[in-house]
């Protein structure tokens, strides 16, 4: 297990990232989702609440250029399931699971983003909290080392996660041209503190120039109730 703070602070551009795990006291299912941006279009965003989830929205609508890959609902809730993704595949998973498909099956019709030469991976997470039990699943759909003719699909499932432990998956290994895609298993990271201290740690560890927005949710495993924090650089 590595320090989440260190993982974030040592990478100037992890892109978009999902952390899922269990709180230090063992009582809460935890997720964090952040977005970063290098272009003015990517940086011109905020997270806003929508139903039980959130949506990205242009901070200054007059400066919005191409909305296709930057305006979407990163978080939606379907019964006992919380879906967290870096794109409009949130809706794909929601609709697929609502019609009886599994998380993995619902993503079979999707692949990485059509933004060559980066071919940004689609990263997704699913948290299931029911009857005092908790498990989560993560997925990444990525090009074959930059070759868009092949989509590599990876799914990682975690039953009964340990207190104070989480998994971190993000779109890019670091900055570059083209941007190098995340590789390997989601990184095992520490999850410490309460919702406010955890939110503060993640936000402060992200690169000051590139960070845009952060969403954090703690779900009480015993009751299913939750608390949410949203931080936007654009105020």
Tell me what you see in this structure:
There is one protein chain. With 235 residues, the protein is mostly beta strands. It has a single domain (4-232), classed as Inosine monophosphate cyclohydrolase-like (Glutamine Phosphoribosylpyrophosphate, subunit 1, domain 1), CATH 3.60.20.20. It is 15% helix and 41% strand. The protein has five helices and 13 strands. The protein has helices at residues 4-9, 40-43, 89-98, 103-106, 195-205; strands at 17-22, 28-36, 45-50, 53-58, 75-78, 81-85, 122-130, 133-144, 147-159, 165-170, 187-190, 211-220, 226-232. Strands 11-10-1-2-12-13 form a six-stranded antiparallel β-sheet, covered by helices on one side. A five-stranded antiparallel β-sheet has the order 5-6-7-8-9, covered by helices on one side. Strand 3 (45-50) and strand 4 (53-58) form a beta hairpin. The longest helix has 11 residues, at 195-205. The chain is globular, with a radius of gyration of 16 Å. The N and C termini lie far apart (34 Å). The mean pLDDT is 97.
């Amino acid at each position: 297990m590595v320090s989440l703070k260190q993982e974030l602070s040592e990478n100037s551009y992890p892109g978009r990232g999902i952390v899922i795990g269990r709180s230090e006291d063992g009582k809460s299912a935890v997720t964090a989702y952040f977005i970063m941006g290098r272009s003015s279009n990517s940086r011109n965003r905020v997270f806003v609440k929508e139903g039980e989830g959130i949506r990205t929205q242009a901070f200054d609508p007059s400066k919005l250029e191409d909305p296709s890959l930057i305006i979407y609902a990163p978080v939606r809730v379907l019964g006992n399931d919380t879906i967290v993704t870096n794109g409009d595949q949130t809706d794909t998973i929601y609709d697929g699971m609502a019609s009886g498909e599994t998380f993995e099956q619902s993503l079979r019709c999707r692949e990485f983003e059509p933004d060559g030469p980066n071919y940004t991976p689609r990263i997704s997470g699913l948290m299931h909290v029911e009857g005092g039990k908790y498990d989560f699943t993560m997925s990444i759909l990525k090009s074959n080392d930059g070759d868009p003719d092949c989509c590599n699909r990876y799914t990682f499932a975690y039953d009964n996660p340990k207190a104070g432990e989480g998994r971190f998956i993000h779109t890019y290994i670091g900055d570059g041209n083209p941007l190098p895609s995340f590789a390997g298993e989601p990184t095992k990271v520490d999850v410490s503190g309460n919702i406010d201290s955890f939110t503060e740690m993640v936000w402060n560890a992200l690169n000051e120039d590139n960070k845009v927005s952060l969403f954090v949710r703690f779900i009480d495993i015993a009751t299913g109730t939750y608390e949410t924090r949203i931080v936007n650089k654009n105020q």
